[in-house]
Amino acid sequence: MTDISLAIIGGTGVYALAQLEDAEAHQPVTAYGAPSGPIRIGTLAGKRAAFLARHGEGHSLPPHKINYRANLAALKALGATRVLAINTVGGITEAFGPRVLACPDQLIDYTWGRISTLSEEPGSEVLHVDFGDPYTPALREAVLSAAGRAGVTLVGHGCYGATQGPRLETKAEIARMKRDGCNLVGMTGMPEAGLARELGLDYACLAIVANWAAGAGPDPNEVITFDDVLANVAAASAGLPALVGAI
Ligand code: HPA
């Protein structure tokens, strides 16, 4: 097993990494089951890198059905130590409008009913990992400095609120999240970040803002469509190859 310099988990609208060269597909079955799909390992900017589409390459898995434990355990088994999670999100506060890229430093978990620990099975060791800084500071720093080198504009902070989905939120839910201090809302940030910490993986989030969250934009009655989400993710992803290569 050769070390993987960076593992990337792609979210909605990011189902492949075009610049991954000579990629081979791996699909290990872990103690927690099978990952969302093939893990493609190849060369990126001269280093070994891995890519996994979180929802499956055909986007067939809703957020609450993703086997987050298997995805991360499989990446770790293949030699990954650093995971960059790409998450498509809605923007709640002013600096986080559609097509913005952000690297949040905090999160609030509003999800429920998901398996959120490795120590779920009877008899397994109970884990109480430190999670004060949910994203690994050194990897966040690497992302921010890579963005500077690659000339990619990135908001270098923010609080990610993880909701259950798969429906989008009500205006009241977003207003509450704003009062709580959330800048971004997405459906897949947890339990992924917590499980990465339990597995000892470095983990950071690159959030792609696809839309204003419900009632948060200049037109409070705007209806969010999946077509708009995908168009904004595609536009905002223009800088991704340079950014990921620089990391
Ligand atoms: N809410 C939750 N998840 C999302 C959104 C949103 O508005 N946009 C993209 N993912």
TrEMBL record:
Subunit field text: Homohexamer. Dimer of a homotrimer.
Site (Important for substrate specificity): residue numbering on this chain: E169, F226
Keyword Transferase in record: yes
Family in the record: Belongs to the PNP/MTAP phosphorylase family. MTAP subfamily.
Sequence ranges assigned to domain Nucleoside phosphorylase in this UniProt record: 6-240
HAMAP family: MTAP (MF_01963)
Function recorded in the entry: Purine nucleoside phosphorylase which is highly specific for 6-oxopurine nucleosides. Cleaves guanosine or inosine to respective bases and sugar-1-phosphate molecules. Involved in purine salvage.
Catalytic activity: a purine D-ribonucleoside + phosphate = a purine nucleobase + alpha-D-ribose 1-phosphate
Binding positions for substrate per the UniProt entry: M187, N211, W212, A213
A molecular function GO annotation: glycosyltransferase activity
Enzyme class name: transferase
Species for this entry: Luteimonas galliterrae
UniProt binding sites for phosphate: T12, R54, H55, T188
A Pfam family this chain is assigned to: PNP_UDP_1
Coiled-coil spans in chain: none
Organism ancestry: Bacteria, Pseudomonadati, Pseudomonadota, Gammaproteobacteria, Lysobacterales
Keywords tagged on the record: Glycosyltransferase, Purine salvage, Transferase
Record-given protein name: Probable 6-oxopurine nucleoside phosphorylase
UniProt miscellaneous comment: Although this enzyme belongs to the family of MTA phosphorylases based on sequence homology, it has been shown that conserved amino acid substitutions in the substrate binding pocket convert the substrate specificity of this enzyme from 6-aminopurines to 6-oxopurines.
